[in-house]
Amino acid sequence: MPPLLLNASRLLHFPPFPKPYFSSSIPFRLTSLRRPIKTLRFFTSSRFPMDAPPIVLPVKERIELSEKEDQIFARLLDVVRHFGLETQLRVAGGWVRDKLLGKECYDIDIALDNMLGKDFCEKVNEYLKSVGEQEQGIGVIQCNPDQSKHLETARMRIYDTWIDFVNLRSETYAENSRIPTMKFGTAEEDAYRRDLTINSLFYNINNSSVEDLTGRGLKDLKSGLIVTPLPPKATFMDDPLRVLRAIRFGARFGFVLAEELKEAASDEEVRSALANKISRERIGHEVDLMMSDKQPVKAMAWICGLKLFSVVFAFPESPRPPIDEHCDRLCISHIEAAWSLLQAIGPALFTDDQRRLCLYSSLLLPLRCTSYLDKKLKEAPVTGCIIRESLKLKASDSDVVVNIHNACNRFVELFTLLESDEIPENIRADLEDEFLEIPSTSIKRVFTGLLLRQIKDFWRVALLTSTLLDPALHLTNDNLDRTEGLDSRTEMFLRAESTITQLGLDGVWKTKLLLDGKAIMGVLQLKSGGPTIGQWQQRLIKWQLAYPNATTEECIDWIKQSQAKRQKLSD
C-alpha cells in the first residue's frame, strides 16, 4: 500500500450510512498488565559471555541407538560383510556429541577409512539389487578448496534417512599454498583435523564403541569447554568458518571458549581469511543457525567481542551517513533488549520465523536510517544489503527487515495514539480528504489497520522492535543498559497488542474490498480507470476499516453521496 499523503482540506461533513466502529468501548489505557518477568543476564563490551562459567551437561557413558539407527547401521554392516570389505564404518561429529548428551540427532555422517563415499554408496546399491530391493539415488557434493570445502561427500537414503559418506582424511600443505594435498588418513589424523574436540569423537559401528582419538573430546564435553584439537590459529586458517562454528556451539551448549581460541579468533589474519576465503552463503548459514538457536544473543555478543562484527555483517561501501565505529556495541544492545522482551512476553505470540526476523530487525535497528548507492546508483537501505548480500539470506527476509524498519516510526506514533484520549490533527489530516470523513471513535482503528495492512503477519515483530525506539527508553552509545526499561517496554507491548487484537485487526490485511476497480468505475460512471480508481480504492480501505460491518449496498450509497455532495460544492 502506498504511504498516506492525503492532506486535502475537508469539504463535506455528513455521517455515512452504516454505524461506525465505536472504539471507546475498548480500554486503550489498560491499568496493569504486569506479569512475572524473566530476568536475562546481559553482557557489556568489557565482559563477554565467554567469561561466564560453563554449563556442565550430563554426558552418557555409552550411546543408545534408536530402532531406526540400529536398522541403518545393521544394513551398512551387511554391505561390508557381503562384499568382504575391510572397511571400518564410523559415525563422525555432531551425532556422536549429541547422543552422548542424550539429545536426538538425525544428521548422520559416516567416515570411511579405505574408500571414497561415492564408491561405498555404489556398493550399497549393488547389495540392494542382490537382495531384490530398490536401488537409491546417489548425490555427490564436490570438493571446493577455494571455499575450504576439502572433501567430496556422497549422499543417499537408507531406510528413508539421508546419510552422508566421506573418507577419512590427512592433509599436507605445500610451501606458500593454503590448499592442502588430500590423501586417505587414519581415524586419529582425521580427528585432529576436526573443528572442535567435542566434534572429533567417533562412534565405531563395527564394534559399537565411542572413540576419543584426540584424548580430550569426552573431557571437554563433560567440562563444557570449546577447544580445537590442533592449535586454534592453524585450525581456523585451514577453514576460517570454524570460528563461527566454535561460537555457535559454545553459545548453544553454554560452554566456555578457551583463551587461546579467543585470541586466535580475533587475530587479524584469521579475520581476513574469514572475510576473503569463505563464501557469504556459508557465513550467512552459520549466522542463521545461531539466530534460530537457543542463545542467539550470546552468539552475537561473542561475534562483537571477538572483533568479527564488521566481517560477518559486512557493510556496503560509502554508507550515508558514515557508520559509527561503536555501532557493533549498539547493535548488540538492541538485540539483547529485544531478546529480554521476547523472554518476558513468552514464545506463544511468535512463530519461529517471526522470532528469527525479530532478532535480525532489532540487531540492525541502529542502521535503519543508513543508506548506500546500489549497483544502479539508487539509494537503498544498508540493512537490506546486509541481509541480502553480506549474509545471502532470502530476498523475502531482507524485505521483511526493511519493511519493519520503515514502519517503526509509525508504530511509535501508534503507541502514543492508543494511549491518548485525543486525536492529533496531523493523523486526522493524513487519513481524511474531501470525500471521506472518519468519525473520531474510528480514527484509531483506521490508522492501526492501515499500518497492519502494510506489515501483515509481522506486525507483532514491528510492534516489539518499535518499543526499542521509545524516546524515554531509547538505547544510545552513551546508554547501553539493556535491562533498564524492560518492565515499561513489556507493558507498552502488551497494552498495544491487546488493544489491536480487541479492535479485531489481527488479519486485517486479508480483508477484501467490497468493490473492485471495475465495480467502482460503474458506480462513478467512468468509462476508463486511471489514478482516480486507485484513489477511491484507498478511500474504500479506510472506509471499511471505519465501518467493518458495512454492506456492499451501503458502500455504493456512500460513494454516490460523496460524489454528489462533492459536485454540489464544486458548483
Automatic annotation (TrEMBL):
Positions of the Poly A polymerase head domain: 89-226
GO cellular component term, pick one: mitochondrion
Keywords: RNA-binding, Transferase
Entry keyword annotation includes RNA-binding: yes
Pfam name, any one: PolyA_pol
GO biological process, one term: tRNA 3'-terminal CCA addition
Designated name of the protein: CCA-adding enzyme
Organism: Rhynchospora pubera
